[in-house]
Amino acid sequence: MSPEAYTRRQVLVDRRFQLKYAVGLALGGASLCAAFGGAVWLALHQARETLGPESQATLQGTETTVLVLTAFMALVMGLVLSLVGLLVTHRVAGPMRVLRTQLRRLAEGVYPRWRPLRSHDELRDVFAEFHATVDALRRREHEEIGALESALAVGSESSGRATLAALAVAKRARLDGSDDG
Questions:
Q1: Could you tell me which of 6, 2, 64 has the C-alpha nearest to residue 37?
Q2: Is the dihedral of CA 174, 176, 177, 181 positive or negative?
Q3: Contact (CB, 8 A) for 152 and 160
């Protein structure tokens, strides 16, 4: 099995990002469940104090049951929401990992090959824009190579220099361009 095939099967692609949201969801869900259970317990406790002695014993057992069920439901809610958080963040963290790798390769001067995302991944529009940008860069490089090759093939020195000078001016304008946003 290749390392690339293995890394695509990892659930925790970006540990810090994914755990931050999974733990946040788990704590939020467990807290809501505990708050609701605490409110039910408090209502039962107050009702028990206003009733007669024969009903107090029954409600005391019910209070204990409510506390146990609240703790159990808070645990279940925390686990379920943490799993949901991991799965949802995986759909974002996976594509971001691929994008970071492709950006790193582009910075090294290697044009990355288009790689499709998994069917359930998010950020498809970002990937489409990135690949369109890479394709435009690749086309422009091919055009510049063609201009360089034609300048080299030209027998006249002044014509070749003019083509190279125009190419240098165009490249300089793109590098120094103020359109960074």
A1: 64
A2: positive
A3: yes
Q: What is the pLDDT of residues 149-167, one digit of tens each?
A: 777 776 567 777 777 777 7
Please name the residue that has the structure tokens 């201009």: 147
Q: Per residue, what are the HEC states of the chain? A: CCHHHHHCCCCCCCHHHHHHHHHHHHHHHHHHHHHHHHHHHHHHHHHHHHCCHHHHHHHHHHHHHHHHHHHHHHHHHHHHHHHHHHHHHHHHHHHHHHHHHHHHHHHCCCCCCCCCCCCCCCCHHHHHHHHHHHHHHHHHHHHHHHHHHHHHHCCCHHHHHHHHHHHHHHHHHHHCCCCCC
Report whether 60 contacts 28 (CB < 8 A): no
Contact 40, 70 (CB under 8 A): yes
Answer for the pair 117, 124: CB distance below 8 angstroms, yes or no: yes
- Residue 121 corresponds to which amino acid? D
Distance, CA of 57 to CA of 48 (rounded, Å): 8
Using 50 as the pLDDT threshold, list the residues of the chain that sit under it: 1-7, 180-181
